[in-house]
Description:
It is a single chain. The chain is of the alpha/beta class. Helices cover 41% and strands 20% of the residues. It has 13 helices and ten strands. The protein has helices at 2-31, 53-68, 82-90, 101-109, 158-169, 188-193, 209-217, 227-235, 254-257, 279-291, 293-297, 308-311, 321-330, and strands spanning 41-46, 72-77, 96-100, 118-134, 149-151, 179-181, 199-204, 220-222, 244-248, 262-274. Strands 1, 2, 3, 4, 5, 6, 7, 8, 9 and 10 form a ten-stranded mixed beta sheet that branches. Helix 2 crosses helix 10 (279-291) and helix 10 (279-291) crosses helix 13. The longest helix is centred in the first third of the chain and has 30 residues, at 2-31. Mean pLDDT is 90; it is low at 1-35.
Amino acid sequence: MLQVLSRFGRRRTLQGGAAAAVVLGLLSWWVLPLGDEEPSGSLTFSTGVRSGVYQRYGQRLEGALAKDMPKVSIQLQNSEGSQQNIERVATGKADFTIATVDAVAAYLRNGKPGSERLRGCVRLYDDYVQLVVPRGSDIRQVSDLRGKRVGVGQKGSGVLLLADRIMTAAGVDPSADIDPVEAGIDTMPQRLVDGELDAFFWSGGLPTGAVEELSQRLDIRLVPLDTALIGRLQAAGGSTRHYRSAVMPADAYDHAQRGEAVQTVAVANLLITTDRTDPRMTEAFTRTVIDSRDRIGREVHAAQLVDLRTAIYTDPLELHEGARRYYRSAKP
Length: 332
């Protein structure tokens, strides 16, 4: 009889232990966030043209990501800019990238391959349009570009998209009224020095290293884009609604501006991915972008402008689930 009772007691103890384990497991699942499991695998990050802000930012972000996600192998890819970046991510050739919001909106509006899969992670810093000319140039406004050799950005860049739109708004036909040179920020400054260009467009964070270095080698100035021009640009509708009037601070380029602020156009940059990306990976990536802001910002000034309060606004893209998890956890 005692043996039977003993066996019965042991059975109840085992059953009770099993039940307790199940309960603890369920509680752990409920208490711990889904993103606690460390991401692993590999990711490709498409950056930008050599010497541009995208590329410099991407290089420094790579180091921060490697530290925060040690089980993830990270590969950087140079690109021609926003338009190529978006196409790469949308079609699965890259996992994350940076692109201007106007280029994203245009990709969506045109229904290009994979557009429905694009998702936003972070609203980053603003790009400022910079129309650069030698100081002695007779180009004082965009309409003066007629008949000139103008660097308009590479074929897959957001610069090319913006330059065409700005010239059109100023009444300049970008295919007939100028001699367009499709080149990037890695070559346009030297072409200006060599007299192969009369002017070039650039859109990037402030200051852009290549423009700063140019200003120390050649006496240059920045052509203002006045509010009337910006009004005509925005009036075109569609993705142009993402452009806004802005002012380049007087100290953005000391040598070029000589203490004067310059009226221009600004457009936001987004960190983007697709719905294919693991939420844990996206959550961790988003966290690193926010947490590394000050550290990277010491070398790439534009990174200092990433702001947690506005980072969540990734219009016109839906926020990725992983990024949404991060913002929920980061709420004060």
